Amino acid sequence: MKYNFINIFLKIIEFLYKIIKICEDIGKAVQCLNTLFLLLQPFLVPILKIRN
Predict the structure, then answer these.
(1) I need a surface site. Which of 13, 16, 23, 52 has the fewest CB within 10 A?
(2) Residues 6 or more apart from 32 whose CB is under 8 A from it?
(3) Tens digits of residue pLDDT in 4-28
């Protein structure tokens, strides 16, 4: 179970890294990260609650 969670986490990081790379090319990395955070917030909050 723990290994599976780590695997998923790494996949998410890899995915975010690709998006950030694309955003850097456009030159709006900070704006993009802010938008990403807002989009991911609904998903991150339950995950953090489950872990605690």
Answers:
(1) 52
(2) 19, 20, 23, 26
(3) 888 888 998 999 888 878 777 776 7
Per residue in 26-38, pLDDT (tens digit) is 767 777 778 888 8
Which DSSP string do the residues of 1-52 spell out, in sequence order? -HHHHHHHHHHHHHHHHHHHHHHHHHT-HHHHHHHHHHHHHHHHHHHHHHH-
5-44 as b/e, with b when 16 or more CB fall inside 10 Å? eeeeeeeeeeeeeeeeeebeeeeeeeebeeeeeeeeeeee
Task: For the chain, give every domain's residue range.
Answer: 2-51
Q: Say if residues 24 and 12 touch (Cβ distance below 8 Å).
A: no
